[in-house]
Protein: Ubiquitin carboxyl-terminal hydrolase
Organism: Zalophus californianus
Amino acid sequence: MQRRGALFGMPGGSGSRKMAAGDIGELLVPHMPTIRVPRSGDRVYKNECAFSYDSPNSEGGLYVCMNTFLAFGREHVERHFRKTGQSVYMHLKRHVREKIRGASGGALPKRRNSKIFLDLDTDDDLNSDDYEYEDEAKLVIFPDHYEIALPNIEELPALVTIACDAVLSSKSPYRKQDPDTWENELPVSKYANNLTQLDNGVRIPPSGWKCARCDLRENLWLNLTDGSVLCGKWFFDSSGGNGHALEHYRDMGYPLAVKLGTISPDGADVYSFQEEEPVLDPHLAKHLAHFGIDMLHMHGTENGLRDNDIKPRVSEWEVIQETGTKLKPMYGPGYTGLKNLGNSCYLSSVMQAIFSIPEFQRAYVGNLPRIFDYSPLDPTQDFNTQMTKLGHGLLSGQYSKPPVKSELIEQVMKEEHKPQQNGISPRMFKAFVSKSHPEFSSNRQQDAQEFFLHLVNLVERNRIGSENPSDVFRFLVEERIQCCQTRKVRYTERVDYLMQLPVAMEAATNKDELIAYELTRREAEANRRPLPELVRAKIPFSACLQAFSEPENVDDFWSSALQAKSAGVKTSRFASFPEYLVVQIKKFTFGLDWVPKKFDVSIDMPDLLDINHLRARGLQPGEEELPDISPPIVIPDDSKDRLMNQLIDPSDIDESSVMQLAEMGFPLEACRKAVYFTGNMGAEVAFNWIIVHMEEPDFAEPLTMPGYGGAASAGASVFGATGLDNQPPEEIVAIITSMGFHRNQAVQALRATNNNLERALDWIFSHPEFEEDSDFVIEMENNANANIISEAKPEGPRVKDGSGMYELFAFISHMGTSTMSGHYVCHIKKEGRWVIYNDHRVCASERPPKDLGYMYFYHRVPR
């Protein structure tokens, strides 16, 4: 009530007209059913427009809907009124005035300002000693724009008074993103205090992790009971996985797991399978130490110092941020900065680079009227709306205006008054794109490369019709795996969105300097003297490119020619070149002591990049392919019964959901897998599975179902599926013939594919010479439940292939010792000159540090 008294004790706004109590009541009566008092679960937006970056500080103020509690700037409030019919809005405006001067010319002494009641950040452009603020609130009734000034506590109906007070006293909807609050939002796991940890001698290495049940090396989770390292599920944190960590919990009942790669002295991502949510583990350091991980020293260095204690590192910060040079601020369209929300520079740098690409500009900002007009009732929860809002904010120039002439004169005359650029605050955008993601929704520093892939995933899932701007990044990688013993090869293709270049440290051109520096550094540490000036390794770009193209050993390679594990090597080439090539320098690694390390190197990245020599060539004359045989599936004896009980019968797959997805243009087999692996939960859930998994090499390959396909090949010992003389199981033959194929086709196909049902179907399509007739025989009239089989070859991922000649137009640099700390900035080449984007500061670059970047963005040029 004290806050309400402060509000309603203020004078009315100059734009309001005085009305009698009866007049006010008469105006509000028709709209009373639409006025709500915010409940505990309601998000009240009173700081930022849903479609723009207007706020109460803006010239037109902000309009808060008294029913939905969404906020709109003057330019967008009419759209909301037309779409919803909601008529009553609270208009919020903060006025900024120069302080009255005293007789001596100075400002009057400070006193408590009762005219401020909005919870807003003060404008960085204004010196608080010279300016004062006054907040104004009033109700506005559309479409006639009747204004009811507040204070009218005696004249307003009680419900309206309570609603207005609740709106003004509501907390920010972004509290989860505010510093030091994210972790408090998570519950403490009920299993943390008494967690059982097996004394099995397991020690987790600092790198080289791989899922114990498949070949995945990303999105890996360490079970805190037995130390198993297994892949996560796709729907948990928007990254790919086969769900083996969840399967392990179902098998063993061990409840807690921690995500590898997120461990730091501040904590890590812990998930409780039993509680089905991210949780806190107060004893995480002890639980990790059980497996040889010293969490509390994850950010330490060899000499025990922190990042900010290492003086040689300062030079990296100075060089990348171009400290010490007088940088000229840039204003106008395309030169708008993004305010740092607390370790949000990774997001800002990526989004600045993304919206410098014409395809993204056209897809979102170019379609702004249509996207905004057809946005859902809550545009704050719509990806395309928020992308368009951010793109317009960065490109319109509305939030990047140079100071007026009088301010420039004042800046010269009065040094202490130094206006800074406003920029825009991406709170609403970050809240949406990071929700349900345990890392990006936190206030911790993140990896810009991981966020880039996360954003591409969101763009894929929320594409506007057939238009998908992320197509410009997509390319195909040809992987050639050779069995070292038989010399036979296998060629596969997979989708990727960036090129990861290893750092060829052994190719440093200043090895003598590095050796001398290392000796001097160790001597200084031993004698506790100041460390010498850092000597940075100079690595030729050609050496990194050579390291990328060299063969690498394949761990746990199973040779189908030998039917056993063998040594194998893999080489990667480009099966297609993207329109825009993103290159990541793999600078980050872990030491043997689990301390994160960064290769502090200088690489002479070229402005013009030619990688045409890395074009894939496919199967070469004289090469013999490895047999298309899958490795046997070994199922532990104690899991057989459980697995059999969890199998989904092929006939249970929801064919209506499959066909809904197929009508969108996805391969039929991929649609069936999506519906199968999401447990028949509907087309929408299956669609999300498709978007996450569509870049996998076996995306369009037939589904391998345990007990019907993949497991059948091992089923002689596990399920008893195979018979004598390699005669296919009758139940699998019956499934194929029920689809309209002849028995001899089914038998021949199953024998050729080791009794794998889905591969047998694919084999039938690719071997028409084994058909009795020239056309496929599909007896739909005799089998109403038969699947619809497509004769067309599944359409592959869309790529924009062309020349492998590129030109550098942007790069993102990282300062610090690991991706879990430090700072990111972005340099972009615009209008023929380099520009540095350092949070909200945008300036013309004088010495762009192209040799110290982390991610590089190239666009294709004609050869």
In short: The first helix runs from residue 2 to 8. Residues 331-464+804-860 form a domain with the Cathepsin B; Chain A fold (CATH 3.90.70.10).
